[in-house]
Write a structure and sequence with these properties.
The complex is a heterodimer of chains A (137) and B (137).
Chain A lengths: L1 H5 L1 H28 L10 H27 L3 H30 L11 H19 L2
Helix pairs in contact in A: 2-3, 4-5
Chain B lengths: L1 H5 L1 H27 L11 H27 L3 H30 L11 H19 L2
The chains are: A mainly alpha (137), B mainly alpha (137).
Chain lengths: 137, 137
C-alpha cells in the first residue's frame, strides 16, 4: 500500500490498465469467441478493417499507457527496469519471429500466424519484468 | 569529432555496429543473394537451422548492442530519445502486424512473412529517432 502511494505514476498506470486495457481485451476476447475471430460474420471491406482495428486497439492502448507511465515516473530505477524488460521482450520476439520465418521458408517448421507475435512479446515482457525485479530484489 | 570523444557510449556503439552488426548484415545479404534465400541449397533438417540462426543472430546482435548502449549512455536526454524511438518502434510494429494478421484472417490481404517483422521494427525505430531528433533540435 505504501509503495502505491509512493508512486502516483504506478497507481495511474494500474488505473489506466484496469479501465482501458482490460475492457478492450475482454471485448476482443468476447468478440473472438463469439465470432471465432469474426469468421461467421464474414466481414468484408470496411467492416473487416473495423474488426482488424478492434483487434489491434489493446496494443495501441498498452503502448500509450506505457509511454505515459515512463513520462510520469520519477523513479529512474523503475523506469530502467521497464525499459530493460521491453528491450528483452522485443529482442526475443524479433529473434524468434526471424528464426520461425526462416524455418518456414524451408518448410521445416509449422506456419506461425503473424498476429500471434504480439502475444509472444507480452509473455516475454512479463517474464522479463519478473526476472528483473527478482534480480534487483 | 568532439562530440564523439565526449560521448564514449555512442562511440562504443558505433564500433560494435561496425565490427559486429555490419559483418553479420553483409554475411546475411550476401548469403541471401547468393542462395536466393538459400533455396537452391535445399537445406533440410539440422542444416536448415544454420541459416535460420544466422538470420536471427543479426537481430539479437542489434538488440544486444542497443541494450549495452542504453546501459552505458550517461546523457539522460539521449537515452530518453532512444527509449521513445524504441517505444514507437514496438508499438507501431505490433499494431501493423496484428492489423495485418486480422486482415489475412478475413482473406483481404496476402500473408505477411515473419521475416519482415525485424526490418519493419528497425525501419519504424529509425524513422521515429529521426523525427524525435528533429523535434528536439
Amino acid at each position: 500500500m505504501n509503495r502505491r502511494v509512493g508512486s502516483p505514476a504506478k497507481y495511474r498506470f494500474e488505473d489506466r490498465f484496469l479501465f482501458f486495457i482490460v475492457p478492450l481485451f475482454v471485448l476482443d476476447g468476447v468478440l473472438g469467441f463469439w465470432g471465432f475471430h469474426y469468421h461467421h460474420l464474414h466481414p468484408a471491406g470496411a467492416l473487416a478493417v473495423v474488426c482488424a482495428a478492434l483487434q489491434s486497439s489493446p496494443i495501441i492502448a498498452f503502448i500509450v499507457i506505457i509511454a505515459l507511465y515512463l513520462a510520469e515516473e520519477n523513479d529512474e530505477f523503475q523506469k530502467s527496469i521497464l525499459v530493460q524488460s521491453m528491450l528483452w521482450a522485443i529482442g526475443v520476439t524479433l529473434a524468434v519471429a526471424t528464426f520461425c520465418g526462416s524455418m518456414e521458408k524451408y518448410s521445416q517448421g509449422p506456419r506461425v500466424d503473424i498476429a500471434s507475435v504480439q502475444f509472444l512479446f507480452f509473455i516475454v515482457m512479463i517474464i522479463a519484468i519478473g526476472a528483473n525485479r527478482w534480480r534487483y530484489r | 569529432m568532439t562530440d564523439r570523444i565526449k560521448n564514449l557510449a555512442r562511440y562504443r556503439m558505433e564500433d560494435r555496429m561496425l565490427f559486429i552488426g555490419m559483418p553479420l548484415l553483409v554475411a546475411n545479404i550476401a548469403l541471401a543473394i547468393w542462395g536466393s534465400g538459400y533455396r537452391h541449397l535445399h537445406p533440410a533438417g539440422v542444416l536448415a537451422y544454420l541459416p535460420a540462426i544466422l538470420f536471427a543472430l543479426l537481430g539479437v546482435a542489434f538488440i544486444v548492442i542497443f541494450g549495452l548502449y542504453l546501459s552505458e549512455e550517461q546523457d539522460e536526454f539521449q537515452r530518453a530519445i532512444w527509449v521513445q524511438a524504441l517505444l514507437w518502434g514496438i508499438g507501431a510494429t505490433l499494431t501493423v502486424i496484428t492489423f495485418w494478421g486480422s486482415l489475412v484472417e478475413f482473406e483481404l490481404v496476402k500473408d505477411l512473412k515473419l521475416m519482415f517483422v525485424f526490418p519493419l521494427f528497425m525501419l519504424i525505430t529509425c524513422i521515429a529517432r529521426l523525427v524525435l531528433k528533429l523535434r528536439y533540435r
